[in-house]
């Protein structure tokens, strides 16, 4: 077992964490959340998505949010752009307001793909081809997310071969990095290991990351197993926010605070200030008027109070 010395955390709370919220979160609150996250030391932040407000109304303020952020040179800001229209909207303003990275996604489950976007996996990838080409033309990085890489709400377990298939299709159109996502949080360490190994048949260890939901309380265990495999990049969400609007049963992403606490306890560097991170999580939890989903934040707040 050879653990990495450093882990890169991609904070997805402002986008993936908030997209499913029924109450409107104003642009100024999202901007303040991003500011607090980057002040805590996060250097990779997924800010918003450029999708139809008809389908994801929470992200309708994408342009205002991107324009309102006081950017830091060391931070890379990414956005989800599922089609060419979304990408063009993301780069319609001055270049200094562009994202440095876009995210495209495809399911490893045919049933999920058909039921949610009414097309096959191959057809969904073809829709991304012009998006990836346009991004490369403008020197914007492209990251791919393989959703339902372990299990699907419609067809149950997903075979690792399906993950390899999607990774191959993404690689063929020029996607530079893939995240293996346990979208509904049914994964266990062995299942996640097999999904990661399937992606590693196509991409190198530096181009594969993990994205785990904590529906069954397995997210930290799955993260640890990936660390033991040499994976050093993970998506996490502040305060454990999240849930997929298209995946019934998906609960929040693994909490950034919990992952950082575990990594610090293992002597692995993240460059993140845990106290500031917890305060950022409390900020958004207070706005949403509900307790944080981070167990570490709850424990440390109790300790502070004592």
Average pLDDT for all residues? 94
Task: State the fourth-level CATH superfamily.
Answer: Aldolase class I
Number of helical segments with 4 or more residues: 12
The biggest sheet, with number of strands, parallel, antiparallel or mixed sense and barrel status, is: 8 strands, parallel
Strand line-up of the largest beta sheet: 1-10-9-8-5-4-3-2
- Which consecutive residue ranges, at least 5 long each, have pLDDT under 50? none
**Approximate shape:** globular
**First-last Cα distance:** 39 Å
In N-to-C order, the SSE pattern is EHHEHEHEHHEEEHEHEHEHHH
CATH class: Alpha Beta
Helix/strand/pairing category: alpha/beta
Task: Give a verbal description of the structure.
By secondary structure, this protein is of the alpha/beta class. The chain has one domain (8-305): Alpha-Beta Barrel (TIM Barrel). The chain is 42% helix and 16% strand. The strands form two sheets. It has an eight-stranded parallel β-sheet. Helix 8 links the parallel strand 8 (177-182) and strand 9 (208-212). The mean pLDDT is 94.
């Amino acid at each position: 077992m050879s653990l990495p010395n450093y882990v890169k955390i991609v904070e997805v709370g402002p986008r993936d964490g908030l997209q499913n919220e029924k109450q409107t979160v104003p642009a100024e609150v999202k901007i303040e959340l991003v500011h607090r996250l980057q002040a805590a030391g996060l250097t990779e932040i997924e800010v918003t998505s450029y999708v139809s407000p008809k389908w994801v109304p929470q992200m309708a303020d994408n342009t205002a949010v991107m324009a309102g952020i006081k950017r830091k040179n060391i931070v890379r800001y990414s956005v989800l752009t599922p089609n060419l229209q979304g990408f063009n909207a993301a780069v319609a303003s001055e270049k200094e307001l562009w994202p440095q990275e876009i995210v495209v996604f495809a399911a490893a489950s045919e049933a999920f793909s058909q039921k949610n976007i009414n097309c096959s996996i191959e057809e969904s990838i073809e829709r991304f081809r012009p998006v990836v080409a346009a991004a490369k033309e403008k020197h914007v990085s492209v990251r791919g997310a393989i959703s339902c890489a372990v299990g699907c709400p419609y067809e149950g377990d997903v075979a690792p071969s399906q993950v390899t298939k999607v990774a191959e299709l993404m690689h063929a159109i020029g996607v530079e990095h893939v995240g293996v996502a346990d979208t509904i949080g049914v994964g266990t360490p062995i299942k996640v290991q097999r999904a990661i190994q399937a992606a590693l048949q196509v991409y190198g260890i530096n181009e594969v990351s993990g994205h785990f939901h904590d529906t069954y309380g397995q997210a930290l265990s799955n993260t640890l197993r990936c660390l033991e495999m040499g994976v050093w990049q993970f998506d996490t969400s502040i305060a454990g926010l999240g849930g997929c609007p298209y995946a019934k049963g998906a609960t929040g992403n693994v909490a950034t605070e919990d992952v950082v606490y575990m990594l610090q306890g293992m002597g692995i560097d993240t460059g993140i200030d845990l106290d500031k991170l917890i305060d950022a999580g409390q900020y958004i939890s207070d706005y949403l008027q509900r307790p944080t989903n981070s167990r570490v934040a709850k424990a440390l707040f109790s300790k502070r109070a004592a």
